[in-house]
Specification:
globular; 4-stranded antiparallel beta sheet; iron-sulfur; nitrate assimilation; Rieske_2Fe-2S_sf; oxidoreductase; mainly beta; 111 residues; disordered N terminus
Length: 111
Amino acid sequence: MNAPLNTEQWLRVCTVEDIPRLGSRVVERDAGNIAVFRTASDSVFALLDRCPHKAGPLSQGIVHGETVTCPLHSWNIDLTSGEARAPDVGCARRYPVRVENGEVFLALASP
């Protein structure tokens, strides 16, 4: 019997301390940059660095609670789901994050 194929590749991107509290760090990729956010409680989330509204750089937004506010038009994006908060509608792609011993890993789809 064949084992299931692993469709995700975990990539170490930084340490939690490398991400400013209530801020972000950008992971540059040809397929689109990823913004890695750190909340006040040191939770870490990752979204495609493009607001679903007008593609603003979410990495330059303000983090509050588990939300980031886009710097262009103040859309609020939920860091846990990537969904825009009402009344706005849209979704930024979310990437799974794993933190182990202070190291941050992103799950990226295998080619």
